[in-house]
Amino acid sequence: MKPNNPYEALVSYFGNQHKTAEALGCSQPGVWKWVQGKANMSAALALKAERITNGEFKAVDLCPALASLEATD
User: Fold this and answer.
1) Which of 53, 55, 57, 65 has the fewest beta carbons under 10 Å from its own?
2) What is the reported pTM?
3) Which residues of 16-50 are buried (b: 16+ CB within 10 A; e: fewer)?
4) List of domains in the chain
5) Dist CA 53 CA 61 (whole Å)
6) Distances (CA, A) of 72 to 22, 56, 64, 67, 68
7) Predicted confidence band at 56 (pLDDT cuts at 50, 70, 90)?
8) Are 39 and 30 in contact (CB under 8 A)?
9) If we measure between CA atoms, which residue out of 8, 69, 4 comes closest to residue 34?
């Protein structure tokens, strides 16, 4: 089954919500909120996720607010 959003894909990458929370140093209920669309990931956690997945997940995809910081050259 294909993930519906980048958060579901991130959870799949780590194995489950608990392992995702452990890897990122956040709470499992926080991960649940991202997956359910009830909250967005913070910029700091999105950058951490990009780093620890070696770029497989882009911070800008996990935290849409980062898109406004990208250069528009």
Assistant:
1) 55
2) 0.87
3) ebeebbebbebeeebbbebbeeeeebeeebbbbbb
4) 6-69 (1.10.260.40)
5) 13
6) 35, 23, 15, 10, 9
7) very high
8) yes
9) 8
